[in-house]
Amino acid sequence: MLQELSYNLRVVWACAKKDIKSALTERAFTIIGVFVPVNVLILMSLFVLAGSQAPTAVVLQDTGPYAQQFYVAMSHAHSFRLQKATEASAQDLIETGRIVAVVTIPPDFDMRIRQSQPVRVDVEVNNLNTDFTDDIRRAVPLSITSFYARALPHLVTVTPEEHDFYPQDTDYLPYLAVSILVAALMLGAVLPAGTGSAREWEKETVKELLLSPAPRWAMLVGKMLGAFLVSLASVALVLAVLILVIGVWPVHWDEVLGYTLLTLAIFIALGTLLGTLLKQRQAVVALALGSFVPLFFLSGAFGPISFATPAIQFLARIFPVYYAIVLQQHAFHNFTLNTLGTGVNVLILCGYALGVIALATIVLRRSTVAH
Amino acid sequence: MSKDVTPGATMAGRPGDASVPAIEMVELCKDFGKFRAVDHLTLTVQQGEIFGLLGPNGSGKTTTINMVSGLSVPTGGEVSVMGYDVRRDARRIQQILGSVPQETALYEELSAWTNLDFHADLFGVPRREKKERIIRMLELVQLLDRKDSRVGTFSGGMKRRLALGRALLHDPQLIYLDEPTLGVDVHSRRAIWDYIIELREQGKTVLITTNYLEEAQALCDRLAIIDHGKLIAVDTPEHLKQTYGGSVVELETVQPSDAVAQLRALAGVKDVVQDGSRLTITTQDNSNVVPQIINVISHQGEIHSIAVREPNLDEVFLRLTGTALRD
Fold first, then answer.
1. Which residues of A touch B35 (CB under 8 A)?
2. Would you give the end-to-end CA distance of chain A in angstroms?
3. Which one of B73, B105, B123 has the shortest CB-CB distance to A213?
4. For chain A, which residues make up each domain, given as ranges?
5. What are the Cα distances from residue A68, in Å, to A64, A250, A365, B294?
6. The pLDDT of residue B1 is above 70
7. What pLDDT is attached to residue B293?
8. Which of A269, B44, B260, B265 gets the most CB atoms within 10 Å of its CB?
9. What CATH class has A54-155?
């Protein structure tokens, strides 16, 4: 029994060691494995930054206190990226397509407010993109309400009484960046593990494995361990960018570490399975890059999946990405995004990992060479 | 996994029993879709012999040994190695089998030493013996001085030698070599042949596939000729030549002879090939027909030279299959 255990552990370590050495010699694939996940994190964060706030010029024709307060109310609406401009330069900016809207505060703004007269705030919108147009259409009335609530509170008799579920507000980027982390981990794991397994078939070295008496599971676990250790570099880089550059500070550091390693393990197992099934590195890379975006969008990346339609919820719960996002949102923001509890979410992910390892073992056991 | 098949543990029982054939195939078949690559092959390889599978490319040699080693699942029939069934006891077989696949299956990005070290771990070579055995194998295949070089920098012959050293590292009972000298220079080919002969002297069983007749003749105790997945003949090279080859009479006349039709009509003449003034006559038996051949030719003109020789395996193969081996 001990002899068998010792032999199996030896096989695991031998396969891991060999795959690490092989990966280090194949620099192109190692670079892809390290930088693609970081690239994904940065690109998607930039997408969020670029898309979240509409660039808007404000022409302040009145510089009185009410006009200034209206400007402040707009800046707190979280929908505009404001810049003050003259009428001419604002016109130039909108005509050259550099801003979405021009909001003009008229010269008699303060006077009319004081005299309780109607004020016409001119809003010129470049409505080529309804996403931005709708932002403007929602945010301008919101700014007016906010302005009245602050500047003339006696006129606003209906006020919301907000009770927050969480002590802190979380911006869109920090929320989404945590989901992007999971997608980046997925890529950072599937790519090296999948290409490492497929390489054995492409270069026909798989015969060395298939002709050996070593248990298939031990070889696969060894390959996964190798890919896991290789992937740690990309994980460290992704976490560093998320925490230090994007500035998403975790609430539970221990959970971040644990869930990150667990997520990595699952996708390493999945990559190994894909590599063993597809047997071609290009196919693995294409599938990994092609599937991470739909899985990302499907798995509650932008908000709790319980807000989505029942069909989307059903689909999301099939894939491990969803559970990984739930756990990471808890680790970073202390959010509870489903009713299963962290323990059950962890168990589900462990179940995925074991299931995928078992499946990969069966695939490798049944693998033969075509001659 | 049961304890007795843990690599490094002593194999007891049948593998050591000399009466058990090293390899036994009974009505072995392999289909790829509608294509039958191996067609009801029945063969026995005895322990301690060098057995060759001879046939042209695509004849089913590699498919056959892939089934022997468990790399490919037979469509029909039975195959056993040292008494173990490949379907039920694949791991036992892998433990006693050393393999040199056609494409060598070496990790070219890694060093020679790392390749052998990895193999030793996979096959459970005892840790205390590992280093010594790797050095011994690298010495045997004359690659010790290149132990730290990447295999990708090796020539074809060096890779084959390294693959052979790797196959022997776990001290297997049976070694198969798939086209062991394919694409190898003459010097390396001779070295590989020497290693193979040495293996037989150590009591190992060697199964080789080749489409080099010279190789088959130089190495093999027995040969199976395979074509289109079927067994055509099996015997020692000498018997094959005697049984299927007859003798070959090579004649050169002063003037091109016009007696070809007459020669073909002689009883005991199987084939006549004319190339200008040269005639190559294949006979079934040289005891009676050679004087008659000389008689016919001498009536047509003067004989410049005459030689009677044994047929080569190419001629045997041509006789048996109707095609040349290198077609």
1. none
2. 37
3. B123
4. 7-47+169-366, 54-155
5. 6, 37, 73, 125
6. no
7. 87
8. A269
9. alpha beta
pLDDT at B14: 53
Interatomic CA distance for residues B202 and B200, integer angstroms: 5
Is B124 part of the contact surface with chain A (CB cutoff 8 Å)?
Answer: yes
List of residues 6+ apart from A315 with CB closer than 8 A: A298
- Whether residue A157 is predicted with pLDDT greater than 90 in this model: the reply is no
**What is d(CA B54, CA B52) in angstroms, rounded to the nearest whole number?**
6
Per-range mean pLDDT, top range of A25-29, A131-135, B318-322: A131-135
pLDDT of residue B26: 95
B5 to chain A: nearest residue by CA? A213
Question: Where in the sequence of chain B do the CATH 3.40.50.300 domains occur?
Answer: 3-241
Q: Which of B71, B110, B123 sits opposite A369 (nearest CB)?
A: B71
Is A210 in Cβ contact with B70 (below 8 Å)?
A: yes
| Residue from the list A1, A3, A205 with its beta carbon closest to the beta carbon of B107 | A205
CB contact under 8 A, B5 and A25: no
Which residues of B are less than 8 Å from A225 in CB distance?
A: none
Q: What average pLDDT does the segment B34-50 reach?
A: 94
Percent of chain A residues past pLDDT 90, beyond the cut:
57
pLDDT at A119 over 70: yes
d(CA B20, CA B11): 15
CA distance A161 to B297: 123
Interface of A with B in 204-243 (CB under 8 A): 204-215, 219
pLDDT digits (tens, 9 = 90+) for A204-250: 999 999 999 999 999 999 999 999 999 998 899 889 989 998 889 99
Q: Amino acid identity, residue A310?
A: P
Cα separation, A358 vs A342, whole angstroms? 24
Look up the ipTM and state it: 0.79
How far is the first Cα of chain B from the last one, in angstroms, to the nearest whole number?
47
Contact B94 A368 (CB under 8 A): no
Contacts of residue B72 in chain A, CB cutoff 8 Å? Answer: 368-371
Structurally, at CATH architecture level, domain B247-309 sits in: 2-Layer Sandwich (3.30)
β-pairing verdict for B50-54 and B222-227: parallel
Residue B231 φ/ψ, nearest 5 degrees: -80, 125
What is residue A51's predicted lDDT score, i.e. its pLDDT?
A: 62
Cβ contacts of residue A58 below 8 Å, gap of 6+?
A: A71, A74, A82, A83, A84, A85, A90, A102, A103, A104, A105
* Number of Cβ atoms within 10 Å of the Cβ of B58: 12
Residue B129: per-residue pLDDT: 94
pLDDT digit string, tens, across residues B155-210: 988 999 999 999 999 999 999 998 888 877 888 888 889 989 999 999 999 999 98
Mean pLDDT, range A344-362, rounded to an integer:
92
Mutate to test the interface with A, among B36, B119, B122 (most CBs of A within 10 A): B122
Contact (Cβ atoms closer than 8 angstroms) between residue B269 and residue B213: no
pLDDT higher than threshold 60 for residue B11: no
Every domain range in chain B assigned CATH 3.30.70.260:
247-309
- Cβ–Cβ < 8 Å for B316, B244: yes
The answer to whether B265 contacts chain A (CB < 8 Å) is no
Tell me how far apart the alpha carbons of residues B14 and B21 are, in angstroms, rounded to a whole number: 10
- Kindly determine whether residue B92 and residue A207, on different chains, have CB atoms separated by under 8 Å: no
Interface-testing mutation among A212, A223, A367, with chain B (most B C-beta atoms within 10 A)? A212
Q: Which CATH number fits domain B3-241: 3.40.630.10, 3.40.50.2300, 1.10.10.1100, 3.40.50.300?
A: 3.40.50.300
